[in-house]
Design goal:
It contains eight helices and twelve strands. The chain has about 220 residues and is of the alpha/beta class. Helix 6 packs across helix 7 and helix 6 crosses helix 8.
Length: about 220
């Protein structure tokens, strides 16, 4: 699916110019000429927004603050205002970039591409990692990190954490955990789960006071959301 860009500017000629150039690059392009119209267009869930600052009624800074209440995609400001104060304000209200008018369409395309590429990397990394506060479970790297510091776990301990964390809030019996981690044909006793959970908690406690694995008395364990 092509990525969608929302253009917001009260100057129709600039909208038309950007729209044609971006469509030539293969983007889906939506547009709005003022703030309230732009807010209604957020339901399309754009991948990136190009936002003019100086518009009648609601200016771009105020609009950006409202956009940030419902959507987190990259926002590139366009503005004839070029002071450092204006650029800083744009970033503080939630913008990701600031381009001064008159601008080069080649540069705008490059910035759009860079921001969308960064979003794709973040999305890819997030898919392969689970985040719980300061704790990160790296599914590809087969490791647990706290504030980017690796916590040493055995493979069995990692598998228990991995399985519980994939189902936060869901309670599993010791027998269920043993079958999922050791396998149905494993020779052993599900009581080993209790010992493994104790060791996991002790290791986590050295880094974080959060109780990630909760005991549900009489039933089993669950990962705390």
């Amino acid at each position: 699916m092509n990525q969608t860009i929302l253009l917001v500017d009260d100057e129709k000629d600039i909208i038309s110019f950007m729209k044609d150039a971006l469509q030539d690059e293969g983007y889906e392009v939506m547009f709005a000429y003022e703030g309230q119209e732009a807010l209604k267009k957020l339901k399309i869930n754009p991948d990136l927004i190009v936002l003019d600052v100086m518009m009648p009624g609601m200016d771009g800074f105020a609009l950006c603050e409202m956009i940030r209440k419902s959507i987190s995609c990259p926002i590139i400001f366009l503005s004839a205002k070029q002071t450092e104060q204006d650029r800083v304000r744009g970033l503080l209200v939630g913008g990701d970039d600031y381009l001064v008018k008159p601008f080069s369409m080649k540069e705008l395309k490059a910035r759009i591409y860079a921001h969308l590429r960064r979003e794709q990397r973040i999305s890819s990394n997030s898919y392969n990692r689970l985040h719980f506060g300061e704790l990160t479970i790296d599914l590809n790297g087969y490791q647990i990190l706290h504030n980017n510091e690796v916590i040493p776990f055995t493979s069995r301990e990692f598998e228990i954490i991995h399985f519980l964390a994939l189902h936060p809030g869901q309670v599993f019996t010791r027998e269920q955990l043993y079958e999922k981690v050791w396998g149905y044909d494993a020779e052993g006793d599900s009581s080993t789960i209790t010992e493994h959970v104790k060791k996991i908690r002790a290791k986590l406690l050295k880094y974080d006071e959060t109780s990630y694995i909760s005991t549900v008395w009489g039933i089993g364990y669950k990962w705390v959301k």
